[in-house]
Amino acid sequence: MKLWIKKISVVLITFMALGVYIPPTYLDTSADNDEIVSAKTNFNDDIFTPVSEVEIGNESEQEEIDTDEYLIGIITEQAKEQTISKMGPRIAKQVEDDFSTSILPHIEQVVRDILVESGKEQFQYYGISEQPSAGYGEKIFHLYNFKANTDIAKFHVRRENRPGDGYWFNFHYHLKNDNFEEHHSIGEVFWAKDTPPKWMA
């Protein structure tokens, strides 16, 4: 419920800040003198130009697109933060280059694709779980529908010890469509030959 209220308030504040206030057209900001304009002054009808319905429709469509992109941006940013949090400072420092160039952009793209595919009617109720599993757990975050209280996608990272090759981090996700059975690969990052520390360490 808390996340829903936050999203609604952000949308309303954005709407109010970006398009509700329209200054009166009789104010002339480039006036040469500082005369006060009274409300009783007669104005030409030429000053006021009617706004067509088409323009209003385009503006509302543009606001809707901006709002959708804004919500998608918030969710993808939360996903990115949870992924960075999962790595922890010790692991992140060693794998930072590969992680930030190949894994994070791919995770953001997958989250964006899932949200766009689901449609605005659904993704307005989507959120990111806030606590990745520490220790040796695989969970990075889950994308879930808080209205229906169901998971949509599960993003995980697994440690793999390949003999003679060292430790690798395998990033993947599972989808609700196949009952979370299939591993959809995001990418892999090499750690080293020695054992990596626990997650979030």
From TrEMBL:
InterPro entries named in the record: YpjP
Protein name in the entry: Cell division protein FtsK
Pfam family name, one: YpjP
